[in-house]
């Protein structure tokens, strides 16, 4: 795996370091989700890491919002590696979604390559994270133990957990739609600039052609009063 332009700072700032020598419960799990935009230079490669535990579901949504430079290829090469360096997901498109069940605990590497564009950069919006069904089962087991004390609180707690799950997935879909809205905005700006530029060029060509036609037509009727030659027309 090529590790050119790897962003190690993000690993420390966003996801932190796991505690060494502790139990599995003491290991830093990271946040549920992240969403931000990055800029890949021409031919650039950037990698990020996110921690996931066995039994969780890992997801990644990406979309190319803006491409600048000479080459305008919107394809982005994406690859996800497991902690054992095995490839667990890959894509090569302008937008896409990758999701899989985590089979081993550790930091998963996400690499984004702009090798399709050697003379142009691209702006990419990312949304990734993990969610766990196993954690919900643990919460449900705790709720069953509480039913003997107060069944009403158990029902409220179960409803709250379900609501949190629904809100989490709602935010996932919202972030994906926000990526699409950003991509449409940049496409609209690009089309507007293209139409305006070509309209100005065509208007200039029409004015210049009209002026030249009048100029040469006028020269056909020019006569010299000092000569006795007949007019050319």
From TrEMBL:
<feature type="transmembrane region" description="Helical">
    <location>
        <begin position="198"/>
        <end position="217"/>
    </location>
</feature>
<feature type="signal peptide">
    <location>
        <begin position="1"/>
        <end position="22"/>
    </location>
</feature>
<keyword id="KW-0472">Membrane</keyword>
<keyword id="KW-0812">Transmembrane</keyword>
<keyword id="KW-0256">Endoplasmic reticulum</keyword>
<feature type="domain" description="GOLD">
    <location>
        <begin position="45"/>
        <end position="130"/>
    </location>
</feature>
<dbReference type="InterPro" id="IPR015720">
    <property type="entry name" value="Emp24-like"/>
</dbReference>
<dbReference type="GO" id="GO:0005789">
    <property type="term" value="C:endoplasmic reticulum membrane"/>
</dbReference>
<dbReference type="Pfam" id="PF01105">
    <property type="entry name" value="EMP24_GP25L"/>
</dbReference>
<comment type="similarity">
    <text>Belongs to the EMP24/GP25L family.</text>
</comment>
<protein>
    <submittedName>
        <fullName>Transmembrane emp24 domain-containing protein 6-like</fullName>
    </submittedName>
</protein>
<keyword id="KW-0732">Signal</keyword>
<keyword id="KW-1133">Transmembrane helix</keyword>
<dbReference type="InterPro" id="IPR009038">
    <property type="entry name" value="GOLD_dom"/>
</dbReference>
């Amino acid at each position: 795996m090529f590790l050119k332009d790897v962003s190690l700072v993000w690993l420390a700032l966003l996801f932190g370091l796991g505690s060494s020598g502790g139990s599995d419960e003491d290991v830093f799990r990271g946040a549920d989700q992240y969403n931000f935009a990055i800029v890949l230079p021409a031919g650039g490669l950037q990698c990020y890491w996110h921690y996931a535990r066995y039994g969780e579901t890992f997801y990644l949504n990406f979309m190319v919002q803006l491409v600048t430079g000479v080459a305008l290829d919107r394809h982005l090469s994406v690859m996800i590696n497991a902690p054992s360096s095995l490839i667990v997901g890959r894509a090569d498109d302008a937008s896409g979604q990758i999701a899989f069940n985590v089979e081993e605990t550790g930091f998963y590497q996400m690499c984004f390559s702009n090798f399709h564009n050697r003379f142009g950069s691209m702006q990419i919006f990312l949304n990734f994270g993990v969610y766990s069904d196993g954690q919900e089962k643990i919460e449900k087991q705790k709720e069953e133990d509480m039913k003997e004390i107060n069944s009403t609180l158990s029902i409220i707690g179960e409803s709250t957990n379900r609501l949190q799950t629904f809100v989490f997935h709602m935010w996932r879909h919202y972030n994906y739609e926000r990526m699409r809205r950003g991509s449409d905005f940049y496409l609209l700006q690009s089309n507007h600039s293209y139409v305006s530029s070509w309209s100005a060029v065509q208007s200039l060509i029409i004015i210049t052609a009209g002026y030249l036609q009048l100029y040469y037509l006028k020269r056909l009727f020019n006569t010299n009063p000092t000569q006795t030659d007949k007019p050319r027309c």
